[in-house]
Specification:
alpha+beta, binds adenosine-5'-triphosphate, 13 helices, 7-stranded mixed β-sheet, 23 strands, 445 residues, 30% helix
Length: 445
């Protein structure tokens, strides 16, 4: 494989050329760290989100879905700690990645200067100058731009789940332990964004908050972190590219008792793309305190009232899509030619098959069209009659389309077609009326 920078450059270029990801507002020079998904990208991301939703919500009896609004009462963010935590002058250590207040008493020297020493890892000269850090995007609700009208674009979806947990629990008649899952946009005014879609200012999260009886949180935490790793493996991500990173005491968020990141080895290094957090009863207790509303759960078995503990699994939809893109990217030699192939697991590939008439005559386009029309009722398929068959295959390899269906001279005689496998390049002849079953079988899992 080519060097890392090169791989990212190639991936960004392929993403644009093939219609996976475009820079936002590109004709105006782009908007910093905001990206748009093109025709193939939106399908890929959608398939990943649907797979997550199916495994979390549909396949489990103990998890319910929710779609909370992006805008929430501003007190939510006071209670959660986001208002206080993110508007102070902050200093980052470029070495250990810790972030702390510029007036942290442990800090020595002048941040931004070579003499400053990181209070956490002890490295000298790695601290940034203090910046007034506004992680949350602020806007105004209603016609008047005054402080009483300030609302925030949510920086995480989790709080929408916490403030609704009793609504969901009571309406769905769930008993502890149970979870609430949500997919939605989040916004962070990141100071150091970059690496393509890895760190963006607008992104989507797939979060699940699992509410448990106090005392059982460690067990559920273990369960969920293993379950989540398995999910990524089943998504087709190479297991050797996945690992856990447990947060040390200095890394733990203010709300967390324990936390693991699931990391992927991107071309630019190992980085988190999912966090599993043991959040204790911090958030619910804070909301109870700030709202004045009881957020206790009544245990029907014992008649006890208590605030549940929460185990969170927090996955970025965009970052997972980037993991899948990086993991799928392959360059190889085929019959003396170089080809770039995106080896997506067929179940999540944006296009499931492409249909080609070998030549645009002798009844082939008509039959190919009929086959395409039949397949599109079940799968996202593509029709391509432009250029040599070899070029058409290469284009679909770059799109990661697992199957290429070619209508040739024999097809018009006996109603069979060839199906080319993207990865093995093997071709099999299949009766045209068996194609739906043939593909359905291979697209499972
Ligand atoms: P990081 O340390 O990378 O900033 P974080 O620890 O703040 O991430 P969490 O708050 O735990 O992240 O968010 C959970 C998940 O949401 C992350 O693992 C990631 O997939 C996604 N995520 C968070 N921030 C961003 C972002 N700016 N751009 C894209 N995805 C993000």
């Amino acid at each position: 494989m080519p060097p890392a920078d090169n791989v990212m450059e190639k991936l960004v270029s392929l993403a644009k050329r093939r219609g996976f990801v475009f820079q936002s507002s590109e004709i105006y020079g782009g908007l910093g760290s905001v990206w748009d998904y093109g025709p193939l990208g939106v399908e890929l991301k959608q398939n990943i989100k649907e797979r997550w939703w199916r495994s979390m919500v549909h396949e489990r009896e103990d998890i319910e879905g929710l779609d909370a609004a992006i805008l929430m009462h501003p007190k939510v963010w006071e209670a959660s700690g986001h208002v206080a935590g993110f508007t102070d002058p902050l200093v980052d250590c470029k070495h250990c990645k810790n972030r702390f207040r510029a007036d942290d008493p442990r800090l020595t020297g002048t941040p931004g200067q070579p003499d400053a020493q990181c209070p956490v890892c002890g490295t000298k000269g790695t601290l940034t100058a203090p910046r007034l850090f506004n992680l949350m995007f602020k806007t105004f609700m209603g016609p008047v731009e005054e402080s009483a009208a300030v609302v925030y674009l949510r920086p995480e979806t989790a709080q929408g789940i916490y403030v609704n947990y009793l609504n969901v629990q009571q309406s769905s008649r769930q008993k502890l332990p149970f979870g609430i899952a949500q997919i939605g946009k989040a916004f962070r005014n990141e100071i150091t964004p970059g690496n393509f879609t890895f760190r963006t200012r607008e992104f989507e999260q797939m979060e699940m908050q699992f509410f448990v009886k106090p005392g059982s949180e460690d067990e559920w935490f273990e369960f969920w972190r293993h379950e989540r790793l398995r999910w990524h493996e089943a998504l087709g991500v190479r297991p050797e590219k996945l690992r856990f990173h447990r947060h040390g005491p200095d890394e733990l968020a203010h709300y967390a008792k324990d936390a693991y990141d699931i990391e992927y080895e991107f071309p630019f290094g190992w980085h988190e793309f999912e966090g599993i957090h043991n959040r204790t009863n911090f958030d619910l207790s804070r909301h109870q305190e700030h709202s004045g509303k009881k957020l206790e759960y009544l245990d029907p078995a014992t008649n006890e009232r208590f605030i549940p503990f929460v185990v969170e699994t927090s996955l970025g939809a965009d970052r997972t899509t980037l993991v899948v893109l990086c993991d799928a990217y392959h360059e190889e030699e085929v019959e003396g030619d170089k080809r770039v192939v995106m080896r997506f697991r067929p179940a999540i590939a944006p296009l499931k098959a492409a249909v080609f008439p070998l030549v645009n005559k002798e009844g082939m386009p008509e039959l190919a069209r009929r086959i395409h029309d039949g397949l599109r009722r079940r799968f996202n398929v593509f029709y391509d009659d432009g250029g040599s068959i070899g070029r058409r295959y290469r284009r679909q390899d770059e799109a990661g389309t697992p199957f290429g269906i070619t209508v040739d001279g024999q097809s018009t005689q006996d109603q069979t077609v060839t199906v080319r496998d993207r990865d093995t390049l093997q071709q099999v002849r299949v009766a045209a009326d068996q194609l739906v079953e043939h593909l359905a079988d291979k697209l499972q899992g």
